[in-house]
């Protein structure tokens, strides 16, 4: 399980609202979080464009430069 989480994080797929530094896999998945996870997976597969770095939502994405500058 750790390898899968590490691989997903390396691919910038995890989305974590309110604190992007903490992964909480036991928390219930909201519609918004599910949508964001699907979007990130599609970005990883090259099927959709990533969000621009100036977008507010990027601060909740793993590995986002915009997120890191706001923490």
Q: Could you give a quick summary of the protein structure above?
A:
With 71 residues, the chain is mostly helical. The protein has helices at 2-10, 31-44, 65-70.
Short descriptors:
mainly alpha, 3 helices, globular, disordered C terminus
Secondary structure: number of strands: 0
The fraction of residues assigned to DSSP E strands is under 5%
Biggest sheet features: none
Poorly predicted segments = 65-71
Shape type: globular
Task: Give, in order, the helices and strands.
Answer: HHH
Distance between the termini: 27 Å
Helix content: 40-55%
Structural class: mainly alpha
Helix tally equals 3
Average pLDDT confidence is 76
Task: Describe the protein.
- With 71 residues, this protein is mainly alpha-helical.
- Helices cover 41% and strands 0% of the residues.
- The chain contains three helices and no strands.
- It has helices spanning 2-10, 31-44, 65-70.
- It is globular, with a radius of gyration of 12 Å.
- The N and C termini lie far apart (27 Å).
- Residues 65-71 have low confidence and may be disordered.
